[in-house]
Amino acid sequence: MHREDFPILESRINGHQLVYLDNAATTQKPLSVIQKISDCYLHHNANVHRGVHFLSQDATELHEGARRRVQRFINAGSSDEIVFTRGTTESINLVASSFSEAFLHAGDEVIVSVMEHHSNFVPWQLLRDRKGIRLRVIDIHEDGTLNLDSFRSLLSSRTRLVCLSHTSNVLGTVNSVGDIIAEAHSHDIPVLIDGAQSVPHLRVDVQALDCDFLVFSGHKIYGPTGIGILYGKRRWLEQMPPYQAGGEMIEKVTLEKTDFNVLPYKFEAGTPDFIGTVALAEALDYVDSIGIDTIAAHEQSLLDYATSQLLAVPGLKIYGQAAHKAGVISFLVDGCHPYDMGLLLDQLGIAVRTGHHCADPLMQRLGITGTVRASFALYNTREEVDTLVKGIDRVASMLR
Ligand code: PLP
Question: Which residues contact 92 (CB under 8 A, 6 or more apart)?
């Protein structure tokens, strides 16, 4: 649906109509977002905050309007709780750095899961090495769902934070984060949710979830690269020290000391990507104009169709068979290296991702080195799934 809004989908790759199935890595952009970026540079470009001239105030209004747009999209209580970052990765690094400075001491424990993206794994591993915290890792079941007994067994009086992906970028599993948050909160433990793969695909309401932090990336939700979100409950953000220092994040600087700005600016050192924020707001408008529930239903039906078609391919195994999955399918075909499969599918104009998907601990847990991954967005069609399945059949017979 709405393919006409995405000019790049008309591309021909290697002589074939593009079939873009790498949406978990990044989504394509609708024309409205592309035009918004050029409109900003053409008509609204001046540095934001504190400028007295017209263009600066205009840009500031657009930028702060974008913050309120994000607030509405995830139903945060206040726009002060929306921090602009470069993406999911920077948001998690911000929390790892700043939360740890305020709240973590040697011997304290942080819980992650074995299905995390490296972005939600390596920052905590670095902290382990630098600060002596302990990293505890929730295991999964064979079907790719989180092992809740494993989670419960890891909770201890030293647990200070749980950091969990809402949706796995490899398995597609949608974790029951509401239950995990409730359980963690019953022990007074805050929870960070990595929403990189959930916010673009299902309704996420931070107040209903009651998560303490939610992070996601603009480029995975039809917005531009280089802009991301950290939502944090005010009570945590207020107690956390700044992440980076420079302009914007200060209230007053003397030779002796610096008073920091109020939320959210305390965490936004330097000139923000004010064109990126406005373009992200445009992307959220676009998503809302279709309806996130409509998008979710469409992607679910593609997932169901693709799963049944792929399972009929001889020798194909799908990794991640949870009952509640998002539009991500990882698979391997007997006798075919995923890299070769990806290269040859590309010759047919089909863009899939191959490799470890920045989830090496999960690959080790599954006993494999990588998979082929197809991931869906609102503009994908059943015909594209058919093209993928035919392509896999053809490539598999060549490789064998
Ligand atoms: N977390 C998950 C679950 C992801 O899928 C990704 C990207 O694929 C990231 C984090 C990192 O996102 P970014 O590279 O936009 O910071």
Answer: 119, 120, 123, 163, 192, 194, 215
Whether the predicted model's global pTM rises above the 0.85 cut: yes
Phi-psi region of 38 (alpha: psi -120 to 50; beta: other; left: phi over 0): alpha
Ligand 1 and 173: CB distance under 6 A: no
* Rounded-to-integer distance, Cα 225 and Cα 212, Å: 25
Ligand 1 in contact with 165 (CB < 6 A)?
Answer: yes
Catalytic (active site) residue 163: no
CB 98 within 8 A of CB 241: yes
Q: Cβ(248)–Cβ(269) under 8 Å?
A: yes
Burial zone of 340 (CB within 10 Å; 0-12 exposed, 13-18 middle, 19+ buried): middle
Q: Residue type at 365?
A: R
Contact 82, 65 (CB under 8 A): no
Residue type, 320: G
At position 18, the amino acid (one-letter code) is L
The ligand 1 atom at the shortest distance from the C-alpha of residue 169 is 5
Q: Is the CB of 93 under 6 A from ligand 1?
A: no
Indicate the DSSP class of residue 350: E
Give the total residue count for the chain: 400
- State both tokens at 400: 């064998």
Closest CA to 202 of 328, 98, 43: 328
- pLDDT, tens digit (0-9, with 9 covering 90-100), for 12-32: 999 999 999 999 999 999 999
Query: Quick one: which of 76, 62, 27 has its CA closest to 236?
Result: 76
If you take atom 6 of ligand 1, which residue's CA is the nearest one? 196
Q: What is the pLDDT of residues 274-327, one digit of tens each?
A: 999 999 999 999 999 999 999 999 999 999 999 999 999 999 999 999 999 999
- Going by C-alpha positions, the residue among 386, 384, 359 that lies closest to residue 370 is 359
- What are the DSSP E strand ranges found in 166-210? 191-194
Q: Atom 5 (ligand 1): residue with closest C-alpha?
A: 169
Task: Tell how strand 350-351 and strand 19-20 pair up.
Answer: parallel
Cβ-contact 9, 262 below 8 angstroms: no
